[in-house]
Design goal:
The structure is a single chain. By secondary structure, the protein is of the alpha/beta class. The chain has three domains: 3-265, Rossmann fold (3-Layer(aba) Sandwich); 300-396, Orthogonal Bundle (Arc Repressor Mutant, subunit A); 400-516, Serine Threonine Protein Phosphatase 5, Tetratricopeptide repeat, CATH 1.25.40. Helix content is 51%, strand content 14%. The protein has 21 helices and 16 strands. The strands form three sheets. Strands 1, 2, 3, 4, 5, 6, 7, 8 and 9 form a nine-stranded mixed beta sheet that branches. The longest helix has 23 residues, at 354-376. The termini are far apart. This is Pimeloyl-ACP methyl ester carboxylesterase.
């Protein structure tokens, strides 16, 4: 039987079922975004004899309602603690699904003494930052109601295994209760929090934790949840067979049995006996996972097509890049990923003796270090590993010039000439009129020349297949842009522009005069 608790601006729907055992532990079941307390129906029937059970709808989800649209973890925790106080509940074991799992983590991070253990099911704890940012943008684009519902219904198909109509329709009915804006607000709260999780902080959490993963969960696959296992010091993990994301709906009996085992054993005291091999192995595995995740989370983007811009974790690295050959040096290191000090000295200070060149290099690296740390608010060591003889990039960078090269390679592979022409015009017309003119070093100029030559080669081939004067003129404009000294291109382009009475004739006539000069 459902009850209601009226708070200042919120009406919470809840159900509190007391076991016949007065001393039974209390289980709190928290639902996922878009779900409601009924997602636990089967589980409640299986566990109600052994535990007092509290389940409720978060504000503005399910049947709970609120006059306020404000949403923070503090607000949700305030609602929850009011409910605990009202029911005189002192200690809890929290079982959280998806967003409900993030809620449990927030209680643990705040060291709530009433939280005795937590079970995290299909919970977003670590997602590579670049993927997370893309997904946040994608879901926030679901503005129109029809688009939102269509995408949600597609998502629902992945939550159960097998995806029988009765299970899918049941979940769909839950999602139909939530408004688009509410769903997005909760999604953003969880996603923004997960992106900023500090894994070092998780090492300090002492709350016994069980991770439950569905064998066939495509959203949070078991191998992803295995990563979490290395960051929570007092935890275990179980993969539920023949289940997808909503394991409590797919396999309620298996799910409930492992809840029992976990909670019963969470009261047991560890014997304290350890084996050296195991300790060493765990330390090594922890270091491997931490280094890998740290590297994947650091996003370094280098813009070179227009001007020079270094972006780290979305922040532009500001500073005096024109000093101490910093711009050229950082570009060279990022492009090559691994370079020797000797290689850098020969490239940037070829006329200096090796001692002075090494000194200049050290000064330049320290200058870059200060700019990066000041802008990114993170240690320079997160990005560069500066050893005695070798300097290596520790993250996988994104470089706009390399992305362009990849797009050009894809163009060259297109067999359909019409498609290749259309894609080439779209790509090349989006490029700057002049590539980077800030770096004049031979090694960089050669990269630009190679790109321009490949663009010219593609345009030369496509000229043979143009069917209209406009297509031909568009290709010739690109060729003139990247090879302004070839009078043949300019002359043909001027003739076409004359025929179509274009106002651009004068502009290209001036270019022709510049070539003659």
């Amino acid at each position: 039987m459902y009850n209601w608790l009226e708070l200042e601006d919120t009406l919470l729907r809840y159900e509190y079922i007391r076991s016949d055992r007065e001393d039974a532990p209390t289980l709190v079941l928290t639902h996922g975004n878009g779900f409601d307390l009924t997602q636990w129906d089967e589980v409640v029937q299986l566990l109600r004899n052994d535990y007092h059970i509290l389940r409720y709808d978060f504000r503005n989800q399910g049947r709970s309602d609120s006059d306020s649209t404000q949403l923070t973890w503090e607000i949700l925790i305030h609602d929850f603690e009011k409910l605990l106080s009202y029911l005189s509940i002192k200690d809890i074991h929290l079982v959280g699904y998806s967003m409900g799992g993030n809620f449990a983590i927030e209680l643990a991070r705040r060291q709530k003494s009433y939280l005795k253990s937590m079970v995290l099911i299909s919970t977003a704890i670590y997602i590579p930052k670049n993927i997370a940012i893309q997904e946040i943008k994608r879901r926030n684009s679901w503005v129109e109601e029809e688009v939102f519902r269509n995408n949600i219904y597609h998502l629902i198909q992945n939550l159960c295994h097998p995806a029988h109509d009765d299970k899918i329709n049941r979940i769909k009915r839950m999602y139909d209760q939530v408004e688009q804006r509410t769903y997005i607000d909760y999604f953003n709260l969880c996603a923004d929090t997960a992106i900023d999780y500090d894994f070092e902080e998780f090492h300090q959490l002492r709350v016994p934790t069980l991770f439950l993963a569905g064998e066939f969960d495509p959203l949070y696959p078991p191998r992803l949840q295995m990563v979490y296992h290395h960051y929570f010091p007092n935890n275990r993990i179980f993969v539920v067979p023949q289940a997808s994301n909503a394991v409590m709906i797919d396999q309620p009996e298996v799910f409930s049995e492992h809840i029992r085992l976990f909670i019963d054993q969470s009261y047991e005291v560890n014997s304290g006996h350890t084996y050296n091999y195991t300790e060493q192995l765990n330390r090594e595995l922890d270091e491997m996972f931490e280094a890998g995740i740290r590297q994947r989370n650091e996003i370094l983007y280098l813009e070179l097509m227009n001007d020079f811009k270094l972006v780290i974790d979305g922040k532009v690295v500001e500073g005096k890049w024109s000093q101490r050959k910093s711009m050229q040096l950082m570009t060279y290191i990022i492009l090559n990923k691994s370079v020797t000090r000797e290689q850098l000295c020969e490239t940037f200070w070829p006329d200096e003796d090796i001692t002075k060149a090494r000194s200049q290099l050290s000064v330049a690296l320290n200058h870059i270090k200060r700019m990066v740390e000041r802008s990114a608010n993170k240690p320079f060591d997160n990005y560069l590993d500066i050893k005695r003889d070798v300097i290596e990039l520790k993250v996988n960078p994104k470089i706009d010039l390399f992305e362009l090269m990849n797009q050009i390679r894809q163009l060259e592979k297109i067999d359909d000439i019409g498609v290749r022409l259309k894609n080439a015009l779209s790509l090349f017309n989006s490029l700057p009129k002049n590539f980077n003119r800030l770096i004049y070093d031979d090694w960089f100029v050669q990269i630009i020349v190679d790109i321009e030559n490949r663009i010219l080669d593609i345009c030369n081939v496509l000229l043979q297949y143009t069917s209209t004067k406009k297509e031909r003129a568009d290709l010739l404009k690109i060729m003139v842009r990247y090879n302004a000294v070839d009078f043949e291109y300019i002359e043909e382009l001027i003739n076409i522009l004359k025929d179509v009475k274009s106002k651009e004739v004068e502009y290209y006539r001036k270019k022709a005069l510049d070539v003659y000069k």
